[in-house]
């Protein structure tokens, strides 16, 4: 069916198109095309890559529009091989007669199909305005890393993730399969790697009920299916087998691989940096070469990732055998020994036609000759590698680490405590200014990483990755400076709509409105509302759902309590995901959740989950584990007579080395310790002591209360607790300042 198009309806440029990532260039044409079940798709005879692209387009249309155009020689959608086009590039020509996708390689044909799908799902009837799009990626490496070692995800989830990546033209799935907490890959020559190393019992606080054993692994048949599934979507799976550190799961299974220091029972349920490293015996290299041989048979990727990060070398220093080996090799120190170790593995990989890639610590002690560096400790590793003539991938923490919080709501899932918003990620520049033009050519691309210590469910993993991964996709594909954040948001919204039928429930952190409230004049509620993208917000106070005609939020609201506030964000008349529906009473104004409190320092801030109950919702505690201390800033104290703390205990399951010794607590006055409340600074006057005895035997939350002296005005409150050591660690889930005797049971 052909529909007339006016000049005003035609896209003016690439930025106006609902395509994410932003195409390189676009030019409007005359007419329009409506994609329907009858449109048909034509591919060159015997062209398996073109047929695959057509099948993928059919899959996407079936999932999102409910129909699949048939393959037909006279189809209105034509896939054409064109010589001489750059890798992964494509041209998409849409006219009143249909659509033609041209590319030289399979990936280009697929990406053209994905862009056509995006255009055809941007409105209700599948009409696409005529346009010519010439598109190609900025970088060759556009990746996501998923940590399956800390928490296992099902093969079905991995395949859904691959679908979401393909919809963004991401092309590298870096699969972190091995770490201290779990060995996830079946290695047939060494079955104990998965029999022993794939399982652990999660840590729980002293005296708390033991949690169920967790773990699992991927069979080689499952891996082959995942690799093939990814390849059909132009995604290369890059496996990571960590060495010489992060090796506890292997050493637990085969202790002879270590340096003679027995693994501490239960250490596999800790987080942090572990001291267990592979030794440097020839037999251990034989084991690693056997493992890598099976890995290479499963993964055709040119790159094999070997980790190389966070290798604490204390056990190497203390091992007479390793020190003797160092002398025999003429290696000056342990850093040089790690370099020798990585170089030996690289030689093995190169002999099998593969390339080694590792985290930026492989620079220390001398970089292996052909190694590629993945820079995670900022961009410095990438800069150093590029200046040495080595290829590099930018994956810097914290900006591209997706395990950081992306919002401040109490409903944000556990993870690292630093706030890394969608706008923060989109604002990252993947081209270090300190590099020359020639050195810039060594930047292969960008990658976002999700470490899953605290993301124990697949739903949380998806939430943490998207939509920040959408921003990474545009950083990797689109030209530098081609768009701004608001333009990106305009493309993101239809993209999120498309991905829902593909099973993605992305985070609403950047889109949903958030309300901050406090005590205002005359006891009213002073309410401020905003969202991260700065869109308009509509609200109601009568209980009705906000709509585009509801009052526009224009500044702080002063509400007489009790009140019911409902609010929703809108952009261009469209309601955005997420909403506020909150009944506000006087007590709410003096209540703060863990997310509302501020940590006193920012040494190592984590948003930690309680260890109980084993099933069902758990509390979260935002805390600096090196200095458990919280502030309730500018608390309105007029009329306050009591304080209530909802507290919980969690295990201190962190491998921190000497940093653990820096954690200091005041001496407790009672066996279980006490929470202390001080006013006007953490060195200020102590105004309350809340003994922890009632909470010590409770694996869940306990409410502690204490009377407060009368105070007027606003004051900063500081919360700490006394203890004989860090295990268990206590966290605050909520603070309430009470102005009257609490109701029974509260």
UniProtKB/TrEMBL annotation:
The keyword Zinc does not apply. GO terms for cellular component: membrane. One of its GO terms (biological process) is carbohydrate metabolic process. Residues 18-136 form the Beta-hexosaminidase bacterial type N-terminal domain. Its EC number is 3.2.1.52. It comes from the Bacteria. Keywords: Glycosidase, Hydrolase. The keyword Disulfide bond does not apply. Residues 139-479 form the Glycoside hydrolase family 20 catalytic domain. It is an enzyme of class 3 (hydrolase). Residues 525-574 form the GH29D-like beta-sandwich domain. GO terms for molecular function: beta-N-acetylhexosaminidase activity. It catalyses: Hydrolysis of terminal non-reducing N-acetyl-D-hexosamine residues in N-acetyl-beta-D-hexosaminides. The active site is at 310 (proton donor). Belongs to the glycosyl hydrolase 20 family. This is beta-N-acetylhexosaminidase. It comes from Edaphosphingomonas fennica.
């Amino acid at each position: 069916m052909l529909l007339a198009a006016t000049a005003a309806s035609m896209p003016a440029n690439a930025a106006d198109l609902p395509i994410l990532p932003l195409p390189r260039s676009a030019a409007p044409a005359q007419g329009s095309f409506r994609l329907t079940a009858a449109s048909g798709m034509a591919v060159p005879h015997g062209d398996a890559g073109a047929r695959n692209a057509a099948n993928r387009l059919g899959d996407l249309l079936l999932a999102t529009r409910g129909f699949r155009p048939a393959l037909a020689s006279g189809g209105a959608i034509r896939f054409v091989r064109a010589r001489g086009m750059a890798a992964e590039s494509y041209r998409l020509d849409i006219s009143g007669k249909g659509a033609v996708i041209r590319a030289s390689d399979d990936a280009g044909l697929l990406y053209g199909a994905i862009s056509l799908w995006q255009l055809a799902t941007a409105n209700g009837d599948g009409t696409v305005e005529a346009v010519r799009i010439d598109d190609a990626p900025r970088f060759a490496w556009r990746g996501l890393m998923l940590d399956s070692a800390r928490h296992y995800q099902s093969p079905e989830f991995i395949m859904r993730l691959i679908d979401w990546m393909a919809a963004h033209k991401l092309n590298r799935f870096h699969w972190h399969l091995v770490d201290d907490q779990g060995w996830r890959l079946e290695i047939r020559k060494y079955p104990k790697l998965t029999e022993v190393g794939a399982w652990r019992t999660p840590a729980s606080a002293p005296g708390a009920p033991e949690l169920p054993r967790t773990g699992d692994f991927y069979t080689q048949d499952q891996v082959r299916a995942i690799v093939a599934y990814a390849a059909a979507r132009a995604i290369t799976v890059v496996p990571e087998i960590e060495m010489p550190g992060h090796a506890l799961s292997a050493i637990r299974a085969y202790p002879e691989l270590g340096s003679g220091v027995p693994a501490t029972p239960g250490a596999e349920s800790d987080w942090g940096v572990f001291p267990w490293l592979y030794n440097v015996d020839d037999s251990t290299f034989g084991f690693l070469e056997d493992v890598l041989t099976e890995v290479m048979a499963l993964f055709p990727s040119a790159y094999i990732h070997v980790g190389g990060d966070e290798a604490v070398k204390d056990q190497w220093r203390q091992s007479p055998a390793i020190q003797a080996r160092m002398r025999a090799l003429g290696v000056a120190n342990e850093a040089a020994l790690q370099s020798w170790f990585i170089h030996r593995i690289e030689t093995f990989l190169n002999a099998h036609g593969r390339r080694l890639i590792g985290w930026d610590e492989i620079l220390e002690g001398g970089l292996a000759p052909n190694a590629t560096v993945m820079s995670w400790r900022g961009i410095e590793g990438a800069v150093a590698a590029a200046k040495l003539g080595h290829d590099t991938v930018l994956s810097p923490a914290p900006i591209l680490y997706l395990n950081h919080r992306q919002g401040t709501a109490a409903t944000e899932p556990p993870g690292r405590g630093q706030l890394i918003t969608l706008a923060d990620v989109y604002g990252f520049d993947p081209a270090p200014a300190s590099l020359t033009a020639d050195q810039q050519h060594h930047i292969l691309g960008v990658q976002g990483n999700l470490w899953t210590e605290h993301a124990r469910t697949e739903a949380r993993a998806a939430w943490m990755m998207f939509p920040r991964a959408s921003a990474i996709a545009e950083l990797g594909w689109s030209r530098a400076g081609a768009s701004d954040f608001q333009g990106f948001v305009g493309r993101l919204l239809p993209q999120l709509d498309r991905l829902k039928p593909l099973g993605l429930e992305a985070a609403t952190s950047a889109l949903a409105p958030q309300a901050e409230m406090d005590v205002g004049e005359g006891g009213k509620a002073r309410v401020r509302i905003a969202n991260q993208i700065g869109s308009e917000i509509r609200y109601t106070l009568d209980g009705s759902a906000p709509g585009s005609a509801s009052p526009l939020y224009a500044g702080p609201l002063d509400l007489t309590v009790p009140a019911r506030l409902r609010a929703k964000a809108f952009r261009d008349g469209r309601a955005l995901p997420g909403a506020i529906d909150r009944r506000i009473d006087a007590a709410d104004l003096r209540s703060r959740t863990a997310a509302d409190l501020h940590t006193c320092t920012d040494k190592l801030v984590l948003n930690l989950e309680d260890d109980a109950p084993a099933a069902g919702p758990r509390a979260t505690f935002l805390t600096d584990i090196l200095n458990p201390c919280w502030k309730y800033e500018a608390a309105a104290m007029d009329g306050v007579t009591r304080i209530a703390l909802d507290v919980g205990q969690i295990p201190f399951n962190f491998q921190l080395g000497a940093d653990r010794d820096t954690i200091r607590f005041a001496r407790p006055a009672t066996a279980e310790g006490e929470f202390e409340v001080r006013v006007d600074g953490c060195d200020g006057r102590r105004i309350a002591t809340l003994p922890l005895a009632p909470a010590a035997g409770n694996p869940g939350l306990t409410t502690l209360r204490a009377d407060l002296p009368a105070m007027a005005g606003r004051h900063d409150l500081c919360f700490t607790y006394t203890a004989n050591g860090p295990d268990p660690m206590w966290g605050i889930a909520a603070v309430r300042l009470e102005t009257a005797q609490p109701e029974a049971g509260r």
